[in-house]
Amino acid sequence: MAGSDRTNCRxxxxxxxxxxxxxxxxxxxxxxTSDPVLVGAGIIVPRxxxxxxxxxxxxxxxxxxxxxxxxxxLLDGEHHPPGYNVGWxxxxxAGQKVFHAHLHVIPRFxxxxxxxxxxxxxxKEPINMRPAETTDPDxxxx
Length: 142
Fold this sequence. Notes:
The structure is a single chain. This protein is an alpha+beta fold. It has one domain (10-117): 2-Layer Sandwich (HIT family, subunit A), CATH 3.30.428. It has helices at residues 14-20, 58-79; strands at residues 21-24, 28-32, 42-46, 83-87, 103-108. It has a five-stranded antiparallel beta sheet. The longest helix is centred in the middle third of the chain and has 22 residues, at 58-79. The protein is globular. The model has no long low-confidence stretch (mean pLDDT 90).
């Protein structure tokens, strides 16, 4: 079954969970991240080891939503961001590095150099077009 290996999973490591958990409910936790560039950012992680969002139960989905609302209240109070990026990476080709589902919650601010850029901005670049889908020779990867 997908996502059944808890061995070496940092999101299943009790020491990491004890250190980084900021909020929690019966099915998931909000963990702070240590990225100094993304102030206030964190991830919502199911307590059960699930490889991707597609492996979550209905109850885990509902708990993730409830916790996301709590996280927003927390981060709004601490950092007052005017916007957020919220998203999942599912699978290695989509950028998933830790194969335990986790929802990125990233506060965004108007004074950031990349303010106004969303999750899809870099994915939509012509250089990212699959070679088999490209008919324009000027857009084909070199």
